[in-house]
Amino acid sequence: MTTNFLIALMFVTILTFGIAGLLTYLADRILDATWRSLRSKRFQWITLILLIHLNFFWHSIMIMAIDQWTFAGFLYMILGPVILFFAANYLLSHARSQPDNDSIGRRFYFFFAMLEAWVIGAHPVLEQPIDTIVGLHGFLLLLSILMCFHKSRWLESSFPLIAWANIVLILVLRSSGIYAG
Predict the structure, then answer these.
(1) What is the mean pLDDT of the chain?
(2) Distance CA 177, CA 67 (A)
(3) Kindly report the CA angle at 153 between 149 and 158, in degrees rounded to 5?
């Protein structure tokens, strides 16, 4: 087994834990037929975090292409799924402890900002160019930081839609082959 395979395996294993938690929560909501909860802002965020988990599988493919790994590079790459796991866990624990409160909270936006900063920093580690996709992640990073420090009702209600549009655009660009990173 190569180092690339082992790093990718650890990367995907951590992602799988997050995906399992998110799918379990969504299955409970769908099976309970609590349709009100499916229209909530929290549901938008949970499904977006699930989509981001799936998007991270692109990184596991890029991990396999790296020739030489340093320990710092390994730690940095594993940090991404860990941050994503913490963001998902925060959302799910918040949803279970405060089912009637649709507010996400500043801590989640902090996790989201860390996640976006990680994605931007992963490009050089994965030997990927700084391109349009990095710009889209930079935009989400700035909005996340803004949400950490400024409580705007309009931005809080618009942010999930803005994030969804950005992530879907990134997935379309990657899937089309226009951008590999």
Answers:
(1) 84
(2) 22
(3) 100
Cα separation, 116 vs 80, in Å, equals: 9
- Per-residue pLDDT band at 35 (split at 50, 70, 90): low
Q: How far apart, in whole angstroms, are the C-alpha atoms of residue 156 and residue 72?
A: 35
- Secondary structure letter of residue 178 according to DSSP: S
From CA 96, how far away is CA 69, in angstroms rounded? 40
Residues 137, 76: contact at Cβ < 8 Å? Answer: no
Whether 75 contacts 37, CB under 8 Å: no
CB atoms within 10 A of CB 157: 11
Q: Which amino acid is at 132?
A: T
Q: What is the pLDDT of residue 89?
A: 92
Q: What is the pLDDT of residues 120-142, one digit of tens each?
A: 999 888 888 778 788 888 999 99
Do residues 107 and 147 touch, judged by C-beta distance below 8 A? no
Q: What CA–CA distance (Å, rounded) separates 97 from 90?
A: 10
Q: What is the dihedral of CA 49, 122, 174, 57, to 10 degrees?
A: -50
Half-sphere exposure of 57 (CA within 13 A, CB side): 10
Neighbour count for residue 27 (Cβ, 10 Å): 10
- Nearest 5°: CA angle at 174, between 130 and 181? 30
Give this prediction's pTM: 0.85
Contact 12, 82 (CB under 8 A): no
